[in-house]
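Input (structure):
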């Protein structure tokens, strides 16, 4: 074999080895996994896991850009490929965590709705049964109106829960439960004034 043919074969071999291919499949998979995690509401239910996936995607993009900036023979996309695979895996985990957390919050809100409704019903009964006098009549009427507005708030929370907005429903239920405790303390003070 002539020298120039040997040199040409060696050059072609080096070119084939040195020019690695961009990880197009992994890039697409990572992007799709991030989108799926966002659709699963990972931003609300698993924000730390989603952020890890986004950070891994950013690192992969930076590594890809660094390799693209090199001469064709010097490019190696192995590290970028690993980072894209990692980003996709982390995004899938974020989506799974979001689904599990969403289900946990849904069950928690369901139980909180029942118990808080019972608290509001008990408070309404206490207000209705409270002895009225000239010193506490206006306060008791305000408490009665507020108890009625709590029922409306719980109905809104139930509607939010039915539409899958569990965190908003939970926030509303907890606010009502806190206010029930405050009104019970106010009711005790108002009843003491009647005596």
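Output (sequence):
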């Amino acid at each position: 074999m002539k020298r120039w043919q040997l040199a040409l074969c060696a050059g072609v071999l080096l070119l084939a080895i040195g020019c690695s291919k961009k990880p197009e499949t992994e890039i697409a998979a990572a992007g799709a996994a991030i989108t799926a995690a966002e659709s699963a509401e990972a931003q609300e239910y698993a924000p730390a896991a989603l952020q890890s996936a986004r950070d891994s995607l950013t690192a992969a993009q930076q590594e890809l850009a660094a390799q693209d900036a090199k001469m064709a023979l010097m490019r190696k996309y192995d590290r970028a490929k690993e980072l894209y695979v990692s980003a996709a895996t982390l995004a899938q985990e974020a989506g799974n965590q979001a689904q599990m957390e969403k289900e946990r919050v849904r069950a928690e809100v369901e139980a909180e709705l029942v118990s808080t409704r019972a608290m509001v019903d008990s408070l309404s009964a206490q207000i209705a049964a409270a002895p009225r006098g000239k010193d506490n009549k206006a306060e008791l009427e305000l408490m009665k109106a507020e108890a009625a507005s709590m029922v409306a708030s719980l109905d809104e929370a139930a509607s939010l829960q039915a539409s899958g907005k569990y965190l908003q429903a939970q926030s509303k239920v907890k606010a009502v439960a806190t206010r029930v405790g405050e009104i019970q303390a106010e009711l005790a003070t108002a009843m003491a004034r009647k005596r």
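Notes: Residues 102-194 form one domain. The CA atoms of residues 91 and 132 lie 60 Å apart.
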